[in-house]
Design goal:
There is one protein chain. By secondary structure, this protein is an alpha/beta fold. It folds into two domains: 163 residues, Nitrogenase molybdenum iron protein domain (Rossmann fold), CATH 3.40.50.1980; 113 residues, Rossmann fold. A four-stranded parallel beta sheet has the order 2-1-3-4, covered by helices on one side. A two-stranded parallel sheet has the order 5-6. A two-stranded parallel ribbon has the order 7-8. The longest helix is centred in the middle third of the chain and has 28 residues. It binds zinc ion.
Length: 320
């Protein structure tokens, strides 16, 4: 009886959340139109969505275009997405190759909106082919530089991105400037705390290397904290079958340094991590790159900060 009641309550809560978030048919998280909305922001990826709702506060309505669980790299925009962008004040996206779909969309879009890309807010790093990594790249064109696009995985980059967003909002909506600056400063203070925690953990860890038995979308993170890494696949690779050579290489690295845990990332099939754990007896831990959230994560109120603090604890465990 109690159980049924709880279930009914949970279902009701879920239904309510869905209504509140205004989930469209395609799963887009549409903003709650607030009566006092001054700036309409359309975002593509979760980190942009999260930063925008924090800095924008009550003056901004924020929409997340790519639905929960969907791969942003292979996203196919709907006609409604075009309308949403045409009617927004600010498009806040990641930019770069994995959002090529956006470029195509924008070439046909009308409307008077500003655009800000997270990739342009920070010093971009070139993609790296690390020793042992399974090469899944289509041949890069001669002389073409490929940038790692997962810039938000460094909390210091997150600060830069938020400050740029804050300046952009201040110029779009000068009356809200005081609010945006306060929100930004408060949020950056919280990011500073997170950053300090990562530095403490890395400084006191036995190891200075992390092993990703998975794709590796966190190069900015390891660079920031001076960690070395080994990984199975590049950051934006399609999920793929682990090759015997890659598995063997990573198993050797785990044994060599008695690594207590290897990482997998969100929405992974965890196949390679399982093979390595079985063979070496190490643990597998989630590193949530904040790239792709599930509907459940969103409903439970997950944020960049909550996900990164959870990563913090797991990094502590993996560094021994
Ligand atoms: Zn990616």
């Amino acid at each position: 009886m109690v159980c049924m009641k709880r279930l009914a309550l949970a279902l009701l809560a879920a239904a309510l959340l869905l209504t509140l978030a205004g989930c469209g048919a395609n799963g887009t998280i549409a903003a709650n139109e607030k009566s006092d909305t001054v700036v309409n922001i359309v975002t593509t990826l979760f980190p942009a969505y999260d930063f925008a709702r924090v800095i924008g506060g009550e003056r901004c309505a924020v929409t997340l275009l790519v639905p929960p669980g969907a791969e942003s790299h292979s996203y196919e925009p709907t006609p409604q997405d075009v309308l949403r962008i045409e009617n927004c004040d600010l498009l806040f996206a990641n930019g770069g190759e994995s959002e090529e779909w956006l470029e195509t969309l924008l070439s046909g879009a009308e409307g008077d909106f500003s655009a800000l890309y997270m990739l342009d807010c920070v010093q971009a790093l070139e993609e790296e082919e690390k020793e042992g990594m399974q090469d899944l790249h289509e041949e890069a064109e001669e002389g073409e530089i490929e940038y790692d696009e997962h810039v938000w995985t460094s909390p210091r980059n997150a600060m830069e991105i938020c400050r740029t967003l804050c300046r952009t909002l201040c110029s779009l909506d000068p009356d809200g400037a005081a609010l945006y600056r306060t929100n930004c400063e408060n949020y950056c203070a919280q990011l500073e705390e997170l950053d300090a925690a990562f530095r403490r953990i890395v400084a006191s860890g036995r190891l200075d290397c992390v092993i990703f038995a998975d794709r590796f979308p966190v190069r900015y993170f390891v660079e920031e904290y001076g960690l070395d890494y080994y990984a199975a696949f590049p950051g934006c690779a399609d999920d793929t079958e682990p090759s015997a050579r890659t598995v063997a290489f990573l198993i050797d690295r785990v044994r060599e340094q008695a690594v207590p845990a290897v990482f997998y990332i969100e929405y992974s099939n965890q196949k390679m991590a399982d093979v390595i754990c079985e063979d070496t007896g190490c643990k597998k831990l989630l590193f949530h790159s904040c790239h792709t959230l599930s509907a459940e994560d969103l409903e439970n109120g997950a944020s960049y900060l909550s996900l990164m603090w959870a990563n913090c604890e797991r990094i502590r465990e993996a560094l021994g």
